[in-house]
Amino acid sequence: MKIFFLISAFALLSSVGICQQVLDGFSATDAEKQDELEQLFLESVNFSSFRHHLQTITEHPHIAGTPANDAVGEYLLEVMKNAGWDTRRYPFDVYLPNDPGTSLVEIVTPKRMPLNQMEYILEADRFSRHPDLHKGWNAFSGSGDVSGEVVYANYGTKEDFEKLAELGIDLSGKIVIARYGGNFRGYKAKFAEASGAAGLLIYTDPANSGYTKGLVFPQGPYYNESAIQRGSLLTENFTGDPLTPFEPALPLDGKVMVDRLDPEETQLHKIPVTPIPYASAAEILGQMQGMPVPAAWQGGLPFTYRLEGGAKLRVRVRVEQPIDFARINNIVGKLEGSTYPDEWIILGCHYDAWAFGATDPNSGTAMLLTLSQALGKLAREGKRPERSILIAHWDGEEHGVIGSTEWVEQMKHELGAKAVAYLNFDAGVSGKNIGGAAAPSLKKTMMEAAKKVDYPYADKSIYDHWAGDKPSPSIGNLGGGSDHIAFYMHVGVPSLSGGAGGPTLYHTNYDDFYFYENFVDPEFQMGGAVAQWAGIMALRLANATLIPYQIPRYAEDLESHLSNATSQIRQYDAGFDGFTATANAIADLKEVSLHTEKRMVNALEKKSLGPKQVSRINKELLGLEKSFLLEEGMPFGSWYRSLYASNDPNSGYASWILPGIQYEIANQSADGLEQWDQRYETAIRDLIDAINEIAGSLPPI
Predict the structure, then answer these.
(1) Which class is 102-233+269-321 in CATH?
(2) Residue 580 banded pLDDT, cuts 50, 70, 90
(3) What does UniProt give as the signal peptide span (predicted)?
(4) Active-site hit among 119, 397, 406, 448
């Protein structure tokens, strides 16, 4: 599966008459030195190394918890150590299936027909015949052998299942077939099981990726009729290892013993679930005889989609999937800071994959290796960052964002005191289109750093290419689905996610090096460019005198999100008066933030801050995001502690900004709105107090 912060963008006339960025957190003099360092860094990035790393780590399929993935981890460890990073493994024993086991899908009546469950071997793509490739599978499926009539559930969202109930369609004992998209696949299984279904089949419809979009693989970048999206189904009300919520899944043979749940205490699915290609789905859907689907449910296969298959059409689904403890290993390297070693900038991407993982995730992995070599070269030349930079290669992400979560749970006290930011690059070089999402305090850093890096395929910067014909780039808000979750939503570390994307063969056996070099980036220029962008972000965060969070952005974004939430509520409660207390707090936050920002700029320009003042201010800055942490957590899961952001617990991927309020909206409820108004006001007042503490350490203007 499948973004940074920093600096104000004014223009400054330097002593040689060149227009140069003024950087948040730096004095003008220090910004000149930083500019010189950044030029050296840009020249240090070896673009050709990206291709070498990507080709090496995607030579074989490497699922989490397998020897093949361990071999990839060893390569990462070796490259990082050779680049001069203090690198170590962080092992965990987690409960997951690292092998699909056995499965079968067949039409039983009116005519028995076994259905294909694996990608075709293609003459053009040597990787497609690798002996270690598996059938399509969904990790954490239930095991069972079931047969039944068929019901089509569109995307299998909460709303789709509610629509089927409204239409009077009984799912008891039925085999549900749903297409990918609209939500995390685990929720399709959760809703199907809750509706009484006996089994679930999931497929990628050609309307979403296939011949309706363009040429299919190997002629083009879209799913062919045999391509299958694999993926986890894990849907606990927390993120990470299903047996150790809130605690790290430390090794079973280690010195520290961790209490683990019994698997029967978890919410693991009971019904068999497996993905199939759209050619196999067409054999089922094409024989259905029931009522035509609502217009929005029609897919791209060449016939009318129907809600039910009728009594004559029966399908069998059999899955036998073993689940047990497996060892996973995070590989984490540190380049210790020269001045503030206990303040950390962390960059990460996972390395485990469903097969080869050329775009997802290992384009991001190869990019971070390229970056580690460039930063290591600077350090050897005496240009070590002032704050420590960590680069993490996470394991077990594909099964449910497990490796990074266990590490955050293990390191949560240290992270609370030291982590400046987490930068995620999952599948970070999957195409040529720039994009990103970030916490409010990091959005400016991400965009300003993009101005410094050339876009490889046009005479413009990454920023200008990203913005397109708009005045500035569109930058999103973080949701679910990747390794930022625990950092941002559990322990309150400002986070971002970004890179370059495009059409991919997501989670299929075809996401291999052949696909990458033919359809993703044949010139192999984006890997180096994204490494430059990530490195500029990291270096600015690492070297700024004052941590360059964009403090006023909190009020700006909060105001917008609160207005949107109020409008949503008034759609079902016309008399709602609004979040008066929260709105007043945001107004105060805006005033305090702008005033404090001016004083920070003034203090830096006058160089009026001593080391103790700088240390005290940075400590306060590290605590800003934690103003949004609610000790008891969210009502949909106490593990999710951020009042500011969460993944949508009904879809998995989408972002819920102001999740306490969004939970009320999802339930069409007004009962808890007054309480949430008070909670959000309290959090914002805490943030104001923290900002005032910073202001109190600054000289007056």
Answers:
(1) alpha beta
(2) very high
(3) 1-20
(4) 397
